[in-house]
Amino acid sequence: MKLAAIVLLLASSLCFAQESGDFKPATSNVLDAQYPQVDSNSRVRIRFKAPDAKNVKVNFWSGEKSAMEKQPDGFWTFTTRPMAPGLHYYTLNVDGAEVSDPASTAYFGGSKWASAVEVPEVGVDYYLPKDVPHGQVRQVWYHSSVTGTWRDAFVYLPPNYDTSKTRYPVLYLQHGGGEDETGWIRQGKANFILDNLIASGSTKPMIVVMANGYATRVGYVMPDLTGKPFLGPEFIKVMQERMGAFEDDMTQALIPFIDKTFRTLPDRDHRAMAGLSMGGMETFQTTFNHLDLFSYIGGFSGAGNPFLMGGKFDVKTAYNGAMADPSAFAKRVHLLWIGVGTDEPERMKSGLESLHTSLDEAGVKHVFYESPGTNHEWQTWRRDLKDFTPRLFQTAAKTR
Amino acid sequence: MKLAAIVLLLASSLCFAQESGDFKPATSNVLDAQYPQVDSNSRVRIRFKAPDAKNVKVNFWSGEKSAMEKQPDGFWTFTTRPMAPGLHYYTLNVDGAEVSDPASTAYFGGSKWASAVEVPEVGVDYYLPKDVPHGQVRQVWYHSSVTGTWRDAFVYLPPNYDTSKTRYPVLYLQHGGGEDETGWIRQGKANFILDNLIASGSTKPMIVVMANGYATRVGYVMPDLTGKPFLGPEFIKVMQERMGAFEDDMTQALIPFIDKTFRTLPDRDHRAMAGLSMGGMETFQTTFNHLDLFSYIGGFSGAGNPFLMGGKFDVKTAYNGAMADPSAFAKRVHLLWIGVGTDEPERMKSGLESLHTSLDEAGVKHVFYESPGTNHEWQTWRRDLKDFTPRLFQTAAKTR
């Protein structure tokens, strides 16, 4: 066979793969829904019924808004270019109304129950259910004297928790802005990630607590933000109030409740906190204000708090100078971990890279992890969790 | 003050209540969403942004489709007449597209993540979180040799399960058609109902298992039902296959898993099953086929299986004659419980009433409960659960 013929054959087989496709219903669909579909080239095909609509667009939150095409049967369709692996939030815009796709499982994001499509990562199964012992995820309710309300949280208990008598370390793991306490299980698959890491022996069995990151103190009256600019002073003030209330709720109500309810190792050497995006900011605020309670800190695509700090981060003075003496800090905090996806928006990426550089220059020991080819999305945070948790609770020494 | 003046004052205050209203955001809204709103007359006000739409309708599944009114700001609004108490599913129709309201919590119903609005029932709080000990709800994963897949279930554990050494009876509690294993917690508030009933001493502490009622056997290929009539023979065949697979999954995989995983009393005297609508049919099929496993049976707006039985129900011959000898049946089955809402569709109501009459005429001991003024909706099933569970596990004698 001549080289030209081989090249032609290769090219035509590539065309075949790209054109006819091998689309299958996404694993994120509701029962029996045939769309969205994903092919082996990671392209996504959406189909949505809107017979009388003038305009339907699909809006991938980390991608672009694209016009869908109306078919004669009243359905609108659209096929994406190859997408990065992971769970991609999207909504549909129907004549100006931003709505969810009824064929998708609903995931709480963007302050609503949004749609998302799962694009598999070839050869990767650390976040899928496998034939290993499975932990349980419990929904628990606690009364918070800070908020004056009943609040719920999700708690992952490692396999065999019920039959063992062991006490376990605890990771507090927070969702991002516009998400809630359901995110790390529904979107993040944190339970399967932990099951698999614990089964392979790379991560110590631990309890993971996922709380709701929004809180307001008893009697607080939320101001009307209608017409106020996003990230303007009124907005930031609300955010500051809520983050402070969450910090209080977590340290005064949630942690005591968890330590009373579960067989925890209730000291700072066995307590970690991490969070994504807004949850990373909450993590930095809560842990640095309470280093008596935490010794492991993770910021997943979010760390420090640029809004409360006026955009500046000075390692020497930040958090009342907790890191001013890098060697004392390294003894006290067993892990400072920062991660970002290489395809995240520039502002996010450069913010975290510059934090990493500042810490390096100041000689503050930390881990900086970059997730290749992923955006400000859950695949980045799944990978973060996979890199972060094996580093937890490996230090035996007691510290204060 | 003259009588006429008093009447006028009363009338004007009524008008005030009915016209200006005292609308407040519904408890079923997502965080910070100002709409839907409910007033003290149980009227619901919906507001939805769709600036370029020609037609927007609100579709209350147990009520009517109503045209919404376009406002100059691009929002559409609609206010209902006073509604029955409880959680009402609804969707919005935007130029022919049936979608969920982004302001509502998403509840899995109608085979999609739908919207619903909670209308409070005046003076009634048995399904609200109160200052009593709270149980936990656990999500567990089990591998089913029947379906060949990992399946999940939700398990309510009564307060103090972790600290007691007691073994508990188990109620298997099923959702309806188009719903899933999340329904009894998210829509039904089953955990709060049990918490409150257990705290008042009227219900024995028990474990409640909520599984997914849809299953297919390993290797089953779902036929394409496109264009096939709803409840036609192809549809019924799929339903029959799925209900049989669910019965096998429950009796061969789920029950053994639950009895292995939790401190249960693993015998028929301490095992109940109930379900709503399709779940009621599944309950009758599963329990009557396995009276060695169950001794308490509940059908909430669904019992028997009219589809598989060709619409006929003969007490003497039904379920291989299990009820042919009423006195033997009453000794074997401690509770046969049937319920229906007085405002349910005629076919549903007359079906259950006729089952009740047939059982009465044949002398088969059972409880027939009617929920006043409620439709084929969750308020009926919350009340059912409240009436049903205090009757469970009160019989000490061992039976076979």
Protein described:
The structure is a homodimer of 400-residue chains. Chain A is an alpha+beta fold. Helices cover 28% and strands 25% of the residues of chain A. In chain A, the strands form three sheets. Chain A has an eight-stranded mixed β-sheet with strand order 12-13-15-14-16-17-18-19, with helices on both faces. In chain A, a hairpin with a 4-residue loop joins strand 12 and strand 13 (149-157). Residues 1-18 of chain A have low confidence and may be disordered. At the A-B interface, strand 9 and strand 12 of A face strand 9 and strand 12 of B.
How would you state the average pLDDT of chain A, rounded? 92
| Pair with the biggest interface | A-B, 50 and 49 residues
In total, how many beta strands of chain A?
A: 19
Uncertain spans of chain A: 1-18
CATH first level of the largest domain in chain A: which class? Alpha Beta
Number of domains of chain A: 2
Helix-strand sequence of chain A? HEEEEEEEEEEEEEEHHEHEHEHHEHEH
Q: Provide the CATH architecture of the largest domain in chain A.
A: 3-Layer(aba) Sandwich
Q: Compute the gyration radius of chain A: what is it?
A: 23 Å
What does the oligomeric state look like here?
Answer: homodimer
Biggest sheet architecture of chain A: 8 strands, mixed
Shape of chain A: globular
Strand order of the largest sheet of chain A: 12-13-15-14-16-17-18-19
- Estimated share of beta-strand residues of chain A: 15-25%
